[in-house]
Amino acid sequence: MGIIFALFQHFLYTYLHHRHIEDENKKFRWVLYGRALAFLAKVAFGGCVIVVFRQRIWRTFRERALSVLSIDQLFGATEDPSLFMNWETVSNAPILVTIALVIWIIPLATIIFSPGALTFGNYLEKETINRMVPTINFKSESNKDWRNPVKMADGSNRRSVMFYNTTDKSGTQPGWFDYYDQPSAELRRIALLLAYSNMDRPNIQQGARQQICGGSNNGGAFNCSYEQTFVGPGYQCSEVASGYGDTGRLKEYGAPFNMSELAPEGRYVYYSEVDQGAYVRPQAGTFLKGPGGIPVGDPDPSLGVFKSEPVLWVGYSVNSTEPLSKDDPLATNWTHRYDPAIIRCVHMETKYTVRWDYIEPSFLSTAKREYLAPIVDTNFLRMDNGDLDLSEDPQPKENWISPRNNVELYKKTAAYHAIGDMFRDFLRGHVDLAPPLPGPYYAQVYSDVTKTRLVEKNSEPKKNLTEEIEAFYSDMVLSLFSAPEMLPIDEEKVTMNRSRIQSSFVYVPERLWQCYAPVIFVTLIIMLFGAFTIWEDGTTFSAGFSRILVTTRNTTLDDISRGACLGNDPFPMELMHTRLKFGVLADGSEAEYMGGDGYQGVGHCAFGVASEVGPIIRGVPYAGLPDAGLKRRAKRENGTEKEVD
Ligand SMILES: *[C@@H]1O[C@H](CO)[C@@H](O)[C@H](O)[C@H]1NC(C)=O
Ligand SMILES: *[C@@H]1O[C@H](CO)[C@@H](O)[C@H](O)[C@H]1NC(C)=O
Ligand SMILES: *[C@@H]1O[C@H](CO)[C@@H](O)[C@H](O)[C@H]1NC(C)=O
Ligand SMILES: *[C@@H]1O[C@H](CO)[C@@H](O)[C@H](O)[C@H]1NC(C)=O
Ligand SMILES: *[C@@H]1O[C@H](CO)[C@@H](O)[C@H](O)[C@H]1NC(C)=O
């Protein structure tokens, strides 16, 4: 039973190992269960050893004459440790004393030390699991009809990234269609929040880490990381000219301006042209009064058509911080060299591969962009001088995206366009710089770009504006995640790694078995020894009151304890030192003892002084008690005094 209880304790602790239990009461109860098992194990092991101890105690009494004090101490070995201080017991009954010692040590090992195998601690919980996470899917914009709101789980409506106009509000007239009007209010909010936050990362929803990684705040939220891919809009930028006087590929692309506009030659430190060929608002045609942009009569054939997506032309100049030499022609107005550059960005459908690392207390996102194709793949024709002919429609016409035939493609394109639209609002305009000579030197801002992270503190654009623009736009797309009500926010299952520091039970099995192994081993040895003793003795013994009663029915004892038979304490010292031995009291050869009533040769076992008891022989049926009517003689130590009852 002891081994079984120890195993139960082991299994209980194994079950608790690394288990986080929030409720203090429950925690406390689990600990108590473990202790209860330890206690039961103690009872079982201790019980075994005590049985052997009792078996063995009689053997010792038979073999040695011990003082009454020692006999007392041996009987009280389980509750009184003074036994170990008594040289007589230690020297005369070493085995018994050792067994008694084991009885004392078992509770120490089991009750006190074994529960120490279960402690509390922090451990790093690590796992790789599949979880639903938000993703972006513009297909839901493709399939959206503003007439039928899409509901969220909580009953509120999902929000599109754009507002529509239509040719027919009811959507029943033959040939009706919806066409793009402008970015929706929600998209505006998301874009503005990102731009104004001035952070180097996308905005995310509050509590996103707990929601995405799982785990609660008080129970320990997870750190998690995963990668996901989705398709969305992206700006692909390239530098087409850089450096003072460089023309680069400006002509090749039909750039709307050249280096002459930018500092140090011109007055702009930032200059952009972002609206060439943009979708116009209002569209061509006449419309009914009121909302909805419903055309009067047959709609213009170009109504709502995306003929092109504007290319971003951004010129900027940065302070190289290298002082100009005195003889430099620019030195009349400038103290340091300014390096101008012109970049061109094309709005592309882009495959994003985003790695999210939600870590305490914030998160990191790394987006890789693979540009797939221009969102509207058309170009303006050139005039004779190489400039773009903006008065003519961009070509080829087949690549125009019309709201009439391919509605799904149209709505997706419109969604991309809406996000680009918001982005272009920030880039539009210019920042002028008054040169430091003759001074004063200051920047004049005619653009929202200075409200964003694209510029330095002094309103001059950042050095690596090409990458900054791409990343800023990509963060704007990722910021859609901050508003789960947005239509393009979808869910997907990804494989994520997550980890957290969890306060929990910690079980160290070695500690448990370090306690129990010696106990089990010693108990088994003692039990084998006990079995051997029983075999040798031919009978089992116990130390119950009745056994003591019958083994003390010796008149000699009555004599020597005269005056001290009330169980009074302290027992007279002189008596305490009387040596007694356990054995066969009556000598079978004594004539008086043969009553002729069948008790012939049958002795009575009892404590007595060493000289009056003989050895107990195995297999002989000794009488537990002498017959009541039997006259019996007892003799004193020296055998001279005789007394007849
Ligand atoms: C730059 O543009 C201006 C007009 O905007 C033009 O006069 C000038 O020749 C151009 N410079 C070069 C190098 O093309
Ligand atoms: C949509 O309709 C509104 C109201 O008629 C109008 O103000 C707006 O310009 C229209 N949008 C476009 C893109 O034509
Ligand atoms: C350019 O940078 C240098 C060095 O930081 C600085 O002293 C100078 O004032 C800057 N020039 C302008 C126009 O900001
Ligand atoms: C450049 O400096 C000269 C003389 O220092 C001044 O007359 C001229 O107006 C300056 N040019 C600009 C664009 O400030
Ligand atoms: C979560 O990440 C942060 C930052 O790397 C780290 O300090 C913290 O220990 C991590 N927590 C877990 C549970 O991994």
Automatic annotation (TrEMBL):
Keyword entries, A-Z: Membrane, Transmembrane, Transmembrane helix
Domain of life, source organism: Eukaryota
Regions crossing the membrane: 32-53, 95-118, 516-535
Name of the featured protein: Uncharacterized protein
